[in-house]
Amino acid sequence: MDHAVKNNADRKIFYIIIGFSLFDLLLHFYTNAFASYGFFRDELYYLACAKHLDIGYVDQPPLSIYILALSKAVFGESLFALRLIPAIVSALTIYFIGKIVLEFNGGSTAVIAALVSVVLCPVFLGMNTFYSMNTFVWFFWSLAFYFIIRLIKTDDKKYWLPLGLVAGLALLNKIDFLWFGAGLALGMIFTPERKYFRMKEPYIAAATALIIFSPFIVWNFTHNFAHIEFIRNATSLKYSSTTRLDFVITLLKDNGPSTFPVMLAGIYFLFFHTEGKKFRLGGYIFLITFLILIINEHSKAEYLSPLSTLLFPAGGIIVEKLSLIKNLRWLKYAVPAFLFIGGVFLIPLALPIMPVQKFIQYEKLLGIKSASSEAHKLNDLPQFYADMFGWKNMASSVSKVYTTLSPKEQKHTVVFARNYGEAGAIDFYRKYFPLPPVICPHNSYWYWNDCDTTKNILIIIGGSKTDNQKYLNFVREAGVIQSKYSIPYENNLTIFIGWGLKVPIKVIWNRIRFFI
């Protein structure tokens, strides 16, 4: 009888986990099919990267680009097809977070508390709204935590190898998984897991991760450590206005204020609870990652968000244990309700499910001011949404200028774009509008210019006539790019046509390169 009851309970919990995963999947499917605003700036760049497959890129390792190239070949390049992988990966992440709760011996209350937290977590929803390397970050961190917890529970050394495989893939996706590695190594020193330092399995796992990650290391050696330059510039320039206080405030906003008590409960479980202290290695990974990011004054709060894949399950356990106390049984229903109400109001801030005018009204109703993580001036929309507007119109406007040239001139024309978003838009919409090739000095686009000396007519997006005349003998204004909702620095851009380079293109190219 007891065995039958347990089987029924396990089946119920499994259905709960599957239900949350399917809800998340369908929420993204609906958004992508019926409510999306448009291609995100970075998506256009990643699509361009997928046409230039390599073992590394200035701003990222190559794994997500190879997955994108495969996805393109199978599903195509429509907005829904592009965002199909993020939707699926998001659902899989929720499934493994549910599995982590079960490894903590949690029941249905713990699972519901943890999964409501993650499903409605704004940063998690936002990360999976569009295609990028970030869509895989939470997935790899959840897998890594799952294997660590299995290792601690079973004391079975076989879990080191899959952990090494996951670590290698996570690094080949984004190098911030190095923080996980630092937390794991230092955390082992302070926990009973230090015994593994005397065994070969952790070193085999580390070697496995290094081998998988090695293509990107090789790429950096052969490209003057371009990724290091990118990180240095991003920290000192793009995120220079971010302070430690900003980090903490944004962390609360990104994860949703209602989930903060669950995260605190998760920290308590891992460090202080009798049953949870067994897993405090995971707590040390959180603590050390937090310290690394807070010591670096200009860290983005989203870098810490993957730790929620551990804190939400751990916090769910505390919610469940409190709800078993006679006078606190109401928490079983109150906490999920509180998390749901607190999270559902924030969905439109992370998923573009509202018509844009209604979203602007909704944001004002909530008293929220549009924000940018890169200190850009904004109008009605936050940077996250503004970067989904204007790209097709930009390509169309440039195309109109291009078609004013004679067929002979068109053969010698290229578009000069100042950033990878503009360049990606020209590249992507060439199949819809008559457009020439594009060159751009920003990030990996800098490497893709073959400096063809026959291309001596430039259609230039933005800048000033005076600046453009520094490199060209003749420059004239030919059009204006306007987009109501785009980020302001991409709106009201003048389109110039320039002839006669004053300096060889190779010399100019070295002067204007920027990795950020």
Q: Uncertain spans, ≥5 residues at pLDDT below 50? A: none
* Percentage of residues assigned to helices: 55-70%
Distance, first to last CA? 63 Å
Q: Please give the radius of gyration in angstroms.
A: 25 Å
Shape, please?
globular
Strand content: 5-15%
Strands of the widest sheet, in order across it, are 2-1-3-5-4
The biggest sheet amounts to: 5 strands, mixed
- Whole-number tally of structural domains: 3
Q: What does the average pLDDT come to?
A: 95
User: What is the number of E strands?
Assistant: 5
**Structural class computed from helices and strand pairing:** mainly alpha
Number of helical runs?
A: 26
Work out the oligomeric state of the chains in this entry. single chain
Question: Could you describe the 3D structure shown?
Answer:
By secondary structure, the chain is mainly alpha-helical. The chain has 3 domains: 2-353, no CATH class; 355-384, no CATH class; 391-512, no CATH class. Helices cover 60% and strands 6% of the residues. It contains 26 helices and 5 strands. It has helices at 2-35, 41-50, 63-75, 79-82, 84-103, 108-119, 122-127, 134-154, 160-173, 177-189, 201-222, 226-238, 244-255, 260-271, 280-295, 308-323, 331-344, 347-350, 356-365, 383-386, 391-402, 407-410, 420-428, 445-448, 465-468, 505-512, and strands spanning 413-416, 438-439, 457-461, 472-481, 493-501. Strands 2-1-3-5-4 form a 5-stranded mixed sheet. Helix 6 crosses helix 16 (308-323). The longest helix is centred in the first third of the chain and has 34 residues, at 2-35. The chain is globular, with a radius of gyration of 25 Å. The model has no long low-confidence stretch (mean pLDDT 95).
